[in-house]
Amino acid sequence: MKLSESIRKALNDQVVKEFYSAYLYRSMSADMKAAGYKGYAHWLMKQYAEEIEHGEKIVAYIEDRDGTVDFGQIDAVSAHFDCPLKVAEAALGHEQYVSESIRTIFKAAREEGDIETELFLQWFITEQVEEEASATEVKQGFEAAGDCKGLRHMFDAQLAQR
Ligand code: MG
Q1: I need a labelling partner for 111 at 20 to 30 A (CA). Which of 6, 133, 157, 159 fits?
Q2: Measured in angstroms, how far is the CA atom of residue 52 from the centroid of ligand 1?
Q3: Cα(51) to centroid of ligand 1, in Å?
Q4: How do residues 81-136 score in pLDDT, each as one tens digit?
Q5: pLDDT tier, 160 (very low <50, low <70, confident <90, very high otherwise)
Q6: How much distance in Å is there from the Cα of 93 to the middle of ligand 1?
Q7: What is the Å distance from ligand 1's center to 17 Cα?
Q8: CA 22 from chain center: how many Å?
Q9: pTM across the whole model
Q10: What is the per-residue pLDDT for 97?
Q11: Which of 51, 9, 30 is nearest to 135 (CA)?
């Protein structure tokens, strides 16, 4: 069954948000590499790859439901970071924003009786719980390390294991 135009548009906007997320993490990874946090830079590169997968999943779904995907404009990433805690805070805030965006589409699908989109978005809702949890874990790790450079680099080495 073809998607309604409003759900197609909402999912399409989500595609752009997922690709923006990839772009944001890519930039954060470059910043952390430059600041000497190689483990976190690696962690962020993995996140970058995951976000592209998220975008592709939604593209495939729109296509399966006989919709056209518009590859709209992706915003530039303007902020630079040199402190890993600031990155972790921004990443958590961004994931919370993405979770809310997905919740909004889910509710709209429910209102329209589009059960296929509800089911499709269930995976994303579960994924967002994990994304927020892992972003929180990283934030707490750098918070615990505080101003101690040695501890920060110890935690950074843990992030290289991802
Ligand atoms: Mg995502």
Answers
A1: 133
A2: 8
A3: 5
A4: 999 999 999 999 999 999 999 999 999 999 999 999 999 999 999 999 999 999 99
A5: very high
A6: 13
A7: 8
A8: 7
A9: 0.95
A10: 98
A11: 51
* Cα 106 to ligand 1 centre (Å): 15
- Identify the CA nearest to 139 among candidates 124, 157, 159: 159
Cα→Cα distances 37→14, 94, 136, 155, Å: 30, 21, 18, 10
Q: 157 and 41 in contact (C-beta within 8 Å)?
A: no
In 3D space, the residue among 17, 47, 16, 18 whose CA is nearest the CA of residue 30 turns out to be: 47
CA geometry: angle 128, 69, 1, nearest 5 deg: 85
For 128, the token pair is: 């967002």
State phi, psi for 63 to the nearest 5 degrees: -65, -40
* Residue-level pLDDT at 43: 98
Q: Give the pLDDT confidence of 46-79 residue by residue, as tens digits.
A: 999 999 999 999 999 999 999 999 999 999 999 9
Ligand 1 centroid – CA 84 distance (Å) = 20
The CA 87 to ligand 1 mean position distance, Å, reads 16
Using the mean position of ligand 1's atoms as its centre, give its distance from the Cα of residue 74 in Å: 14
